[in-house]
Structure formats: structure tokens, C-alpha cells
Amino acid sequence: MAYSAEYKDNVDFRTKHAAAMERIIRASIPDIKSYKVLSGISDKEGADGVVHIDQGDVLFRVRREACTHRDFTLRSRELSGKTSELDMIKEGYGKWFLYGWVNKDIIDDWVLVSLDAMRAAGLLSKTLLQQDNYDGKTSFVCFSTNVLQEHGCVVSSYFTNAAQKRPKPRRSFF
After folding, report:
1. For 105-114, how does the pLDDT look when each residue is reduced to its tens digit (9 = 90+)?
2. In which order are the strands placed within the sheet that holds 71-78?
3. From 1, 35, 46, 93, which residue has the greatest number of CB atoms within 10 Å?
4. For residues 167 and 107, what is the distance between their CA atoms, to the nearest angstrom?
């Protein structure tokens, strides 16, 4: 199967930040003995990638420097009709989601979210407003990191002072 240049660029980008993601995961989740990045998972199938550890799967997404929003988004609709990231998570896929934002070529800000806590808090079962993505093929729902914190869904996080000077997060759509 031939992949587009954009796809290859995205794979290279997340591969470049894999070691930093592993450090964050290992520092945030205790007693990890087995750590394996699952291959064959692409952004079109859900998160940027999936890591399997003893305790469950960690989905992850790494945002490029141009992404100034510090919110947690999940794809909620695929024009192709494929099961969305949101639907898979509602059905129980994934235990955590690590979201990282790159600044000057390093993961500067990040949040590790418990998907189990989101499900238990009912955040995924509310009526969620969808926003169309720039690609015209997908839509997403948005959760403020503050709302996630208030509901006990944030396992760990780090936001630099630089992030505080960036534009405020988009409004949470619930």
C-alpha cells in the first residue's frame, strides 16, 4: 500500500517524539513492565498511535507547534462512515489518552487523561456539540483541560508559562 507524503510526514513527526511520550507515560503510570508501541495505527484510525502497557492501552496524539489551543479533542464523525474515535472510546477502547503539544521541537505541554474517568463521569454520554474539522471530512468534540481536571479525569499534566500566554482554549462543547 502506497502512503501519501503527508502520512509519512505525520509518522516521522510522532516517531521523533516517541521517546518523550514514553518518558511521560512511564513517569505518570506506576509499575509498567511491558511497553510496546502498536504498529499499523494511524491518525485516520483514531489517535496518532497506541501504546500497550501492562495496565491497558494508552492512546496518544502529538500536536504541532501551530496548534495553539490547549484543549482535548476527539474525532466524533468520519465522512467515510467509519467508526469515530469518540465512538470507540465510548465503547471502552483505551484506558488513557496522552495529548502532547510541541513547541520549538520538543513536547512542551502535555496532559494524560483517564478515559475510564471520563466514561465514569458521564462526560462522553452527554450531548456533545460537534465542530467540523478543516479537512471537511471529519468533525470533533472538544473538552477543556480545566473541565477534565474538575471531573478528576487528569492523571498528570504539565503546562509551561509559555502555554499560559497562548490563546485560551476553545470553548468546551458541552
Report:
1. 899 899 999 9
2. 71-78, 138-144, 131-132
3. 46
4. 18
Are the C-beta atoms of 100 and 107 separated by less than 8 Å? yes
Distance in angstroms (rounded) separating the CA atoms of residues 38 and 124: 25
- Is residue 126 scored above 60 in pLDDT? yes
- Each domain of the chain, given as residue ranges in start order, spans 5-165
- Closest C-alpha among 65, 70, 90, 86 to residue 172: 70
Please write the tens of the pLDDT for every residue from 82-101. Answer: 888 899 999 999 999 999 99
Q: Which three cell numbers stand for residue 156?
A: 498528570
Per-residue three-class SS string for the chain: CCCCHHHHHHHHHHHHCHHHHHHHHHHHCCCCCCEEEECCCCHHHCCCEEEEECCEEEEEEEECCCCCCCEEEEEEEECCCCCCHHHHHHCCCCCEEEEEEEECCEEEEEEEEEHHHHHHCCCCCCCCCCEECCCCCEEEEEEEHHHHHHCCCEEEEECCHHHHHCCCCCCCCC
